[in-house]
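We were asked to recover a plausible sequence for a given structure. The inputs and outputs are reproduced exactly as logged, with field labels preserved.

PROBLEM: sequence recovery
POSITIONS: 170
GIVEN STRUCTURE:
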């Protein structure tokens, strides 16, 4: 019960960080596939869903029903981390994160397209795609930095009781 409460609290905290002025930086939920893949932290997928729920509840998202996009992304991240990519190399971690990010962009794009006709202002697709490409590049560069600090990240997660100490993934 305590672990569930810690994960809900972590999801809410990260959602507040993401939605604050730090949101203009690389978003923290883009790194959740890194935790799923490299550290086998399957409960981190719930953080994405909590973030989507909070965005929909507060109306802070540009895309309506963004929880659906985060739910699909969490499912793809879990599936690819468990069955498709290896967590032993940077390439496996980057491929899992890249697939999850592309899934999220496609899901939000489809949601935006579905709600395009209900809005009075047009959506600027050129900005959407150029921003998505730039964030994908920043995701890979940031993952390269995170990957080199894997032991420190793991020990921090163990100290926060978000990861059991017996789990060795590198």
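RECOVERED SEQUENCE:
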């Amino acid at each position: 019960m305590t672990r569930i409460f810690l994960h809900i609290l972590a999801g809410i905290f990260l959602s507040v960080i993401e939605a604050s002025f730090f949101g203009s930086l690389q978003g923290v939920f883009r790194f959740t596939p890194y935790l799923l893949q490299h550290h086998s932290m399957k409960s981190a997928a719930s953080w994405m869903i909590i973030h989507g729920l909070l965005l929909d509840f507060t109306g802070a998202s540009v895309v309506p029903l963004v929880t659906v996009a985060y739910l699909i992304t969490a499912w793809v991240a879990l599936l690819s981390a468990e069955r498709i990519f290896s967590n032993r190399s940077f390439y496996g971690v980057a491929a899992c994160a890249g697939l999850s990010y592309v899934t999220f962009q496609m899901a939000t794009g489809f949601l935006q397209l579905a709600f395009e006709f209900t809005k009075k202002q047009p959506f600027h697709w050129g900005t959407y795609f150029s921003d998505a490409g730039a964030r994908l590049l920043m995701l890979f560069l940031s993952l390269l930095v995170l990957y080199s600090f894997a032991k420190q990240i793991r020990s921090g997660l163990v100290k926060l009781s978000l990861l059991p100490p017996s789990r060795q993934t590198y």
